[in-house]
Amino acid sequence: MSAQAQFANMTVAHLLGALESPDPTPGGGTASAVAGAMGASLLVMVTGLAKSKTNSDDEKAALAEARAGIAPLAGTLMQLADADTAAFNAVMDAYRLPKATDEDKAARTRAIQQALRGATEVPLATLRACAEAIDRGRTVAAHGNRSASSDVGVAIGLLKAAADGAAANVQINLDSIKDEAYRTATAEALSTLTAQAAAHAADGLRALAS
């Protein structure tokens, strides 16, 4: 699929058709970003409801602050859906470069390594955005309208699944990168963000149950 996919402009049916097609893109990275955007959007919806859990001014202020932080993340995640497809297409293009001579092989290796970095950075950004949305989602879980608790639960579930999917995409690309310093730094960031997403998702679900 074209790097100019703009998944946000597709109908749901078109997006699902693109995902189920035999083309390698869009794939799991794009699906993760879209799922994260859906989760973030659900949280934004709950923050905008007329009633909160107790209707206190402090609670409504906390929800407004959460909304201001989460709303941009939904847009960022949809941009990352496009970026993920573009990044993977770049990797495939690099692998198609000629390798007839030693110079060709060296240039091809450099291009592959550069493309793999791009294909690692994009899902890492998706993971980071999902982790932030989950973090802010704890406020929505704690103070949102009780009637929308299932919506918040779905949102947290989508964001956690998106974070896990993005993490898997980071790892699979990172395994092929030769720069050890880059691999170590990225692996540390991956571990930290994954742990944060899991812990904050659990916190949010506990807040829903209280």
Describe the structure.
The protein is 79% helix and 0% strand. It has six helices and no strands. Helix 2 (28-47) packs parallel to helix 4 and helix 5 (149-174) runs antiparallel to helix 6 (180-209). The radius of gyration is 19 Å and the shape is elongated.
Short recap of the structure:
The protein has about 210 residues and is mainly alpha-helical.
Write the layout of secondary structure elements.
Elements: H1 12-20, H2 28-47, H3 57-95, H4 102-143, H5 149-174, H6 180-209
Helix pairs in contact: 2-3, 2-4, 2-5, 3-4, 4-5, 4-6, 5-6
Q: How big a fraction of the residues is strand?
A: under 5%
Order of helices and strands: HHHHHH
* Count of beta strands: 0
Helix percentage: over 70%
If helices are DSSP runs of H or I spanning 4 or more residues, what is the number of helices?
Answer: 6
User: Overall mean pLDDT score?
Assistant: 95
Shape: elongated
List keywords for this structure.
mainly alpha, 210 residues, single chain
